[in-house]
Specification:
three-stranded antiparallel sheet, 13% strand, 45% helix, Aminoglycoside 3'-phosphotransferase, Chain: A, domain 2, five-stranded antiparallel sheet, 2 domains, Phosphorylase Kinase, domain 1, 10 strands, alpha+beta, 377 residues
């Protein structure tokens, strides 16, 4: 069977399952159209199912179907390996959604999961990620949207504490081993061949940085809290309806949540692949101060300490992304990630220039970073 045939069969199964879930949740409903949505080169595909008119009372206009192209990928995290070779017993998305739904209404509702865990039917939270909403707004309004996202994660960090329910996020953590693993990922895939002595000095610097990062207090972390994984809707009330602008923020792709420094998700948001075009140094400082004022969990002694920790966490994350995007392009056959690297590399260069104790890494990056330049027109 060809890949195309397999895809058609998966889509047909997804359509049938969406119809089954819709009829169960809203008796009398039926689907009229199912269409594929744009993807992000991940192991998941998304379809939008439209319900036929007239709809039963309470039925939504549309639903989202998440199609796991390889369910095993979602059941493990290669660098953590805390669940053994067989992975956890249920999808991390389902496990973490169950926990988070008790602490926030910013998640899409989960209406159904197929028996083999390859299909999920979710609430449709729209097509407007935070980045696009901010880009379409005035500078002040865009900054406020990013500020609302920081408010949301600060509040969630304070609420989302281990309650003994078995949430997978509390079984895995960014410890020294994982920070070191991600730094090594950068050295292996993010830089071209360079002088062995320079690489060794950089590795020593990054090993020391991993120790400092591991000493920071940990909280619940989304882990991929960037402006493409936060969607913006018009407010309809509820705890996630935040801000005078009447906007509601919704979270997706939280399946990799774990324990991490409180500033990890802040760094994810403010140093994403596209944010160098919007998050200026001045705006970054204002937003970081806003988070610090709101923060209750994992708080450091003062704002100076917070700023220093933020730069260290942001540097670690952005170097990891440089390595990861090259790895995904070259090892996993997903070249679309290379187009995202120029912005990431600009941010990495800035953070390296602002940081102490990474002189060899700064030199290594300046001469050997892979795909650091804008692609030719």
């Amino acid at each position: 069977m060809t890949a195309s045939d397999q895809g058609c069969r998966r889509d047909a199964a997804a359509t049938d399952f969406a119809a089954e879930v819709s009829a169960r949740c809203w008796p009398g409903s039926a689907l009229t159209r199912v269409e594929a949505l744009r993807g992000d080169a991940s192991s998941r595909r998304y379809l939008r199912a439209t319900l036929a008119e007239p709809r039963p009372p309470g039925a939504p206009a549309t639903l989202i179907v998440m199609v796991m192209q390889d369910a095993a990928v979602a059941l493990s995290s290669e660098e953590l390996g805390v669940f053994g070779k067989d992975g956890p017993k249920e999808l991390a998305f389902v496990n973490i959604a169950r926990f988070l739904s008790r602490h926030t209404d910013s998640l899409p509702a989960l209406h159904g999961v197929s028996t083999d865990q390859s299909l999920m039917v979710l609430e449709d939270v729209g097509d407007t990620p935070l980045w696009e909403a901010a880009r379409a707004s005035s500078a002040a309004e865009g900054e406020e949207l990013f500020g609302l996202a920081l408010d949301l994660i600060a509040d969630l960090q304070a609420r989302a504490v281990d309650d003994g329910s078995g949430c997978y996020a509390f079984a895995q953590a960014f410890d020294e081993r994982l920070f070191a693993w991600e730094f090594e990922h950068f050295l292996q895939y993010g830089v071209a061949t360079a002088d062995a002595g320079l690489v060794a000095r950089s590795r020593a610097e990054l090993t020391a940085a991993a120790k400092r990062l591991a000493a920071l207090p940990r909280v619940f972390a989304h882990r991929d809290y960037h402006a493409w994984n936060i969607h913006v809707q018009s407010s309809t009330g509820g705890a996630a309806a935040i801000g005078a602008a009447g906007k509601r923020l919704r979270l997706i792709d939280f399946q990799d949540a774990l324990q991490a420094p409180a500033l990890y998700d802040v760094a994810s948001l403010l140093t994403d692949r596209m944010t160098p075009d919007f998050i200026t140094a001045e705006r970054e400082e204002r937003l970081l101060a806003r988070f610090y004022a709101r923060q209750r969990a994992g708080r450091l002694a003062g704002f100076d300490e917070t700023r220093a920790a933020y730069r260290l966490v942001a540097l670690q994350r952005v170097l990891k992304v440089v390595g990861r995007f090259n790895y995904l392009a070259e090892v996993k056959g997903k070249p679309a990630y290379l187009a995202m690297l120029p912005g990431v590399c600009r941010t990495a260069g800035r953070l390296l220039a602002e940081s102490e104790g990474v002189e060899a890494t700064r030199e290594l990056f300046s001469i050997a970073a892979r795909h650091a330049s804008e692609p030719p027109a």
